[in-house]
Structure formats: C-alpha cells, structure tokens
Automatic annotation (TrEMBL):
Pfam families: p450. Belongs to the cytochrome P450 family. This is Cytochrome P450. Keywords: Heme, Iron, Metal-binding, Monooxygenase, Oxidoreductase.
C-alpha cells in the first residue's frame, strides 16, 4: 500500500497530475503508479495493451472534443474528486462538459456516427 502514502505522493487525495511532471518532462524521481498491474510472476500481461489502448482512446477524444471542468465562483477549475469506499476503490463519475472543438470537429463526429451501420 506504499503508493497511497503521503511519503510517496504528497497530498495523495488531491487531483494533481502535475506531481508526475518536472520542467515539462516526466519526473523520474516520482514513483510510477504501475503497481496497479500487480507485480512479480503474476503481473498483468495486458499492461501494455491496456496503457496503449487508453492512450489511443484519450488522444482520440481530445482531438475532437473540449473536455472542461466546472468552475468555482472565481472562475477557477472546481475539481474535488470523490471515491467509492471498499475493497476496490474507484473514482465517482466526475462532473464535466464535453463539447466539439469546432463546427468542423462536430461535422466529423456527426459524419462518423451517420456512417456507422450499428447506429440506426
Ligand atoms: C487498466 C487495465 C488493467 C488493469 C488495471 C489490470 C490489472 C491487473 C491486475 C492487478 C492483475 C493481477 C496481477 C497479480 O496477481 O499480481 C491482472 C492480471 C491479469 N490481467 Fe490485467 N489489468 C488490466 C488490463 C488487462 C488486459 C487488457 C488484459 C488482456 C488483454 C489483461 C489480462 C490479464 C491476465 C490474463 C491476468 C492474469 C495473469 C496471471 O494470473 O498470471 N489485463 N491484471
């Protein structure tokens, strides 16, 4: 359970992806949270396909949509993630707004939806 200790990740329940970045690059001094895939002889063999699939999924979404967070009264991002409690703990669905980046992107997505025969 070392990876959720504040000694490893200061302020671990604060959503702060910047904790992994230093001078615009991945900071090798911060532990990689790869333990989610297990370790040793039974380590998850799907780790690379899982990470690469997530990369393709996230970059495809960001290529055509703006994903924005709710703002507080001062116009600052208002992100307070909450988590389920139990043996397996996962983030609750976040509040966010997902809109096409432009009319061109909207048209691209609409054309893809229209050309999908399963989307009648
Ligand atoms: C984000 C996605 C995934 C996570 C977080 C994850 C996590 C894990 C974890 C924690 C284990 C147990 C490791 C251990 O016992 O030490 C495991 C086992 C396993 N995972 Fe994944 N996994 C993911 C995706 C996948 C994918 C995409 C595949 C296949 C394409 C896969 C196939 C397997 C298999 C076959 C095992 C059993 C390995 C064994 O017991 O020898 N996983 N995974």
């Amino acid at each position: 359970m070392g990876n959720i200790c504040p000694e490893t990740y200061p302020d671990p329940f604060n959503f702060n992806p910047d904790r992994f970045i230093k001078d615009g690059k991945i900071n090798p001094e911060v532990t990689n949270p790869e333990a989610v895939f297990g370790f040793g002889r039974r380590i998850c063999p799907g780790e690379y396909i899982a990470v690469d699939t997530l990369y393709v999924l996230i970059s495809s979404v960001l290529a055509v949509f703006d994903v924005s967070v709710p703002k507080d009264a001062n116009g600052n991002p208002d992100i307070k993630p909450s988590f389920s409690i139990g043996l397996i703990c996962h983030p609750d669905p976040p509040k966010c707004s997902i809109t096409p980046r432009s009319d061109r992107h909207k048209e691209l997505v609409q054309n893809l939806l229209n050309s999908d025969p399963t989307n009648e």
